[in-house]
Amino acid sequence: MYIATASEQGTIIRVHLVSDATKVQYRMHPSLSEFPSNSFYEGTLQNGVTINERQSSGIDFPWPVPNRPMFFNVQMGQEEISASGTSYLNGTEAANVEKIVTTFLRSGVVPSQIGVITPYEGQREYIVNYMSRNGALRQQLYKEIEVASVDSFQGREKDYIILSCVRSNEHQFPSLEGIGFLNDPHRLNVALNRARYGNCHSGES
C-alpha cells in the first residue's frame, strides 16, 4: 500500500511501505538517493525508479561522472551579511549558480525544469538579481527560473536542482556553529531530496 509519512521537518513524502524498516522513493535518480539513504534513513531507502527511467533524453549536460548526475562545486568565496542585516549572501556562489544555470539552458534544459534553492533569503534575492543582470543568455530565460528558499521548497521537486549553501565552516572547524542550516539534518535532507534527474551543489570548502 502507499502511505504519506511526515518527515523532512514536516514534508510529506510519498513512499511505498515494504516493511517497518524499508521505504521506497520514486523521485530521484538512484545515484541521488544514495547519500540521503545512508545519512538520514540508515541505508533503508530503496529505489522505485531505475537509472533508465531517470535518463535525460536530449540533454547534453557535462556531468563529471557519466550516469551519476551530480556534482559539488567548491568555491573560494566568503559569505557576508545581506543588506537587510538579517540574512547571508555569497556573491561568488551566486556567480557560479548563474554559470550552472546557463550551462543547463545551453544543454537543452528548459527554465521550468530548473530550481535554485538556498537556505538564506539574502542569497535568494541576490541570485535573482545577479542572474537578471549578468546572465549570458536572454534575460527572460533567467526570470522564468524559480529561485526559492529551502524551507519553501518542502514537498516539491524539479528535474534539476542547484543548491547554494552560502556558508562554510572554514574558521569554525571542528565546531558546526558556522555552517548554518547544514547543521540541521532535517533541512539538509529537504535540500538534497528535491531533484528528479540531477543535483548541483555550490558551496565553500
UniProtKB/TrEMBL annotation:
Instruction: Provide the protein's localization.
Output: Cytoplasm
What is this protein's name?
A: DNA2/NAM7 helicase-like C-terminal domain-containing protein
Keywords for the protein's UniProt record, in alphabetical order: ATP-binding, Cytoplasm, Helicase, Hydrolase, Metal-binding, Nucleotide-binding, Zinc, Zinc-finger
Q: Where are the transmembrane segments?
A: none
The domain of life is: Eukaryota
Family that this chain belongs to: Belongs to the DNA2/NAM7 helicase family.
Q: Does the keyword Metal-binding apply?
A: yes
What Gene3D superfamilies is this protein classified in? P-loop containing nucleotide triphosphate hydrolases
Q: Name one Pfam family in it.
A: AAA_12
Q: Which Gene Ontology BP terms does the record give?
A: nuclear-transcribed mRNA catabolic process, nonsense-mediated decay
Q: Name one GO cellular component term.
A: cytoplasm
UniProt domain DNA2/NAM7 helicase-like C-terminal: residue ranges = 23-199
MF terms from GO for this chain are: ATP binding; hydrolase activity; RNA helicase activity; zinc ion binding
